[in-house]
Records
---
Amino acid sequence: MPDKEFKKVAISLSIGGMTCVSCVANVEEALKMVPGVKNVVVNLATEKAAVEYNPSQTTLAAMKKAVEDIGY
């Protein structure tokens, strides 16, 4: 049963510096570790991450920091 309190928001983040599929996996893992992030799909060709998250549990700044903390 879906959580009635969950409000899902989808955003696209630009991610620079990715060169291979390992980079994609690292970025996806880092974003998935952010509390409130529900789904992440990173595209190497477009250098973007599509993120679904609960805005009451996390912020864009927290997601950007997670990516910056791993070097992207």
---
Amino acid sequence: MPGKAEPLLVISGSCSPVTTGQVEWAKSHGFKEVIINAKEACSSKDVSALMAEALSAVVGFLKQKKSVVLHTNATDKGSQSVSSKKLGTMLGVIAKGAAASTKLKRIVIAGGDTSSYAARAMGIEAVEMIAPLVAGAPLCRVVAQGSSIDGLEVNFKGGQVGDKNYFGILLEGRMDVQV
């Protein structure tokens, strides 16, 4: 077992009710919440101010040793104004910035589309599996030579994957976290 990674950063662009339940569990167990308004982000040509504000909030909490769930309020699955690519890229850029500004050990990326776009934005070249904490979503080590995220632990989670305590399992680095 890989052990605890405190604080933990979770980024999510998932619209899944499963992930929504996991975010609610995390908030009720001490995670701080930072929200990016998905429709506003996707309708704006310049999202730099939104990203800077979110990054500042995330880094502030992480420096206080508080775990954070950064998510979009993308509950409108069918909305034409919400772009998975734009949101996933934004979340990835913020996560990379947070990792560069703090001593993060582990990041969880929730949402299938979010994961692919965020990984690209973070500059992840490859991953190596290090622990099978959750079936179908192993904990991995990042390969990104010359980057601040090289060696970072990452977990990519599809929206429908995991129990309510999923983020607690990734925080603690063990499977026996109580619901």
